[in-house]
Specification:
- By secondary structure, the protein is mainly beta.
- It contains three helices and 30 strands.
- The strands form six sheets. Strands 1, 2, 3, 4, 5, 6 and 7 form a seven-stranded mixed β-sheet that branches. Strands 17, 22, 23, 24, 25 and 26 form a six-stranded antiparallel β-sheet that branches.
Length: 428
Amino acid sequence: MTEHQKPDQEETARIIAAMSMPASPPPQGRGRRWLLGAAVVSVAAAGVAGAAFLWPEPEPVPQRLGPRVLVPPLLRATVGGDDRIFALVRRSEQDETDPPGTAAPRDRIELLAFAADGLAPRLEVHLASVQRGAIADAALIAEQGATIWLWLGGLGALSAVDGQVLADGDGLAQLNAEIAEALASGRRTFRLADALVVEAGAPTRGWRIDPRDFRASPADGPPARPLPRLHPAALHGSGGPTAFRIAEARLEATWFGLPAESTKLVPPLAPMVQGRFLTAATLPPGMRQALWRGQVRVTSAAPSSAPPALMQRWGVGERVTDLATVPAAAGLALAGFLTAGTEAPLQMAGPPGLLLLHGEAGRRLSLMRLGPEGQPLWHAELPILRLRSVLPGARHLTLVGWGATDAEEEVLSVALDSGAHARRAVSA
């Protein structure tokens, strides 16, 4: 019985065995190797429109591999108590016997996993070898119940424990006739809810797939049994100058804002748009910012110029009072409260706080942890100039970004109690 089997191990094992699916090739190209064409619609399935081929290699030809390139998004999940970061990467692949300077005819697609607390390697699995540039939309989707859903020319599932193939489109279709046509179409017909949901049928209906036995059931009703928590892949961006940053945040009733350093905030501060107290406009390059704090109170919404006799006509609303600057966080450039790509800032616990990211364009970014009153608890200079993705965690924050060039992509693990960080180059 393997470590990654679920509470209903025997049923899951029976279903997977019925799919007659081979294990994914071992790392470094040993043993059997998959070569997939550009039209392939499964993770590692032979006989799909003649697009995939498998042949034995009793004496495999040594391969010459290029540097790794990250295929976003990344995925964070806990497997047996081990907090892991998962990533797909591509690298050029060719036989070592090819003459020097010969262009590589293939890309190798691999699944990597690292420990979130220090980026120690956990997995390195060779998933597929494809024609150069094929399956350009490959991506991790989500993790649920130690099963990783991914798109690799088609829908597939891998074990989060050892990276081995658990299911592919053909296997899922054989088990679930209701979604067979949608899976065979090769289109992205899925969405995420309490599980991965495949949109299929006419009229279109959602079918929830249980990651423990890969059986589909109608998504508009409750699941037959409680589902494990689903962890979607992280959001990612192109590394803009204010990526993953917002200009204001709250810690319960305490408000924090980062206006231009020359701006004087006067209480009571009224909201502008959608409850925000600062303009959403991006500050001009080179303009410095200052950190302000205040208290959000529900008070009269009347303007200060309103006659006392008419104050009640304005009703009440949120206003920021007791405004003051935080002198220890002044003169900041391109600063914002760190998010995971949403409009909500990441909030720390023990003690409560926020993360503030800043850094001048073309220079290294810096990360600051703020305490409940806005006081800096630590300040860390990061080895990246642009931020691509943020994966929050209880004790360690994972950041992905670029150095001086796009070829210098790094994964960072930042300890939230101290700001100490480990780094791993994606190309290694």
